[in-house]
## 1
Amino acid sequence: MIIHSFDNKTEPPMKMEDFYGEQKHITDTCLVLFSWKLHQYLLETYPCREIGAIYAANGKTTIWQLPPEKKGIAFYLSPIGSSSAAQYCMETNWVIGATNFVMFGSAGALDAEKTAGKFVVPTEAYRDEGMSYHYAPPADYIAIKNHAVLADFFRKNGYPFVEGRIWTTDAFMRETVGLIEQRKSEGCLAVEMEAAGAEALCDFYGFDLYHFVVTGDVLSSDGYSVDGLTGANHSLGKLHAALAFAETLIKY
């Protein structure tokens, strides 16, 4: 069974150097974007330079670096989904040396009254995906280890936010009414597609993940509302918050 896929007793035959050669150390902090509009905004606003790339059969993902006045923070446009988003963190670490990943995306609200107009800082993620079970022992939830650091930053800088559990799924068209009610009863505020896998991988390799989301669409037993989805996906507010937080992490 997939929940028994965690093997920390033997080593994989493949290593990162097989694909990318020697590991590089360019910057330690990287923004993980899921919005092509925010990605384009950074490229048009700042004189960015290419510092690396992730390669796959379906193409190249460029890793960019912001100018020195923005502390040289890296960023890239991540694929959506727990497996790919987590994998890209591992490859980015090898390609540029990043160990701090500031990941911010959008999510569907399960409790719109609590999340509307606020950043959601996950404290735990329900593991309704496959990636996390390869990087952590089986359990229903995985703790988001750096949630208190991010929450403290938001609190000190006056950003509206709420903390709570989140639900990571890899099958967004199978968020059934029964599952929605079950996750809500466990305290989940929102549902998204990356947190559990990314956290498990980062924990395994000793990286630091700082993750928050903005809710847009709303899922409930009464139906579905898509109205806020586009705004949540491409919110400039979350980009500026992520960039300000990332500037507190950079070391060189």
## 2
Amino acid sequence: MTTSINTWSVNSGVYSNSNNTTNTNSLGQDDFLKLLITQMKNQDPLSPMEGTDFTAQLAQFSSLEELFGIGDSLEEMLSVQTNQGTSDIGYLLGKMIVAEDDSLTVNGGLSTSANFTIEENATVQIGIFDSFGMEVKTINAGSLDAGTYSVGWDARDSAGSPVADGTYSYEVTAKNSAGIPVSAYTVVTGEVTGVTYEYGAPYLLLGDRMVSSGSILEVHMPQTATDTATVTDTGAES
């Protein structure tokens, strides 16, 4: 004997029939109401629906209406949020920004620069890591004044061998003259050239580099952009 199980889910708005196989159909609130009225019309006059059962079904229908209303409201909120997100970051086009970012890209044996900001004078080291989190090189930047710096990596590992093209990350360690850690931020600096989306979230384009709008630290007009000093990778490491 095969048992057939019918289920109604208020949360999903789905009515399904299971008989070794499962069929799923969309059941809206109008269909639910028609089903309830049909059930009342065809009930056994000698055994009418109990009042408590009828009340429970009405409560279920009321909950269904609320859920449909909530769904519509959420769709409207998402639409508004998406439109606001676009307009909120559009004003950044053409401006210079400083944003948190710890990525490096090696392409054709050339690496993008490692940029960072320190809040006070410090001795700085930059550790570079591959996509597996393994350190490939440490650059000693020496003693630096507070400010923003750009370190040009020669795209070679600690043994002096060229590294493979790909994405790397870096970490800045800064200590003052007393050996106490100093706040350091890994950053990217550049002019916003466009806006793109990934998985529905807006990102700023600095050339071909994507930056999350939530990672922005500073915004400047092009002529008042933050000065960035350059530190050369001499191959020295700890």
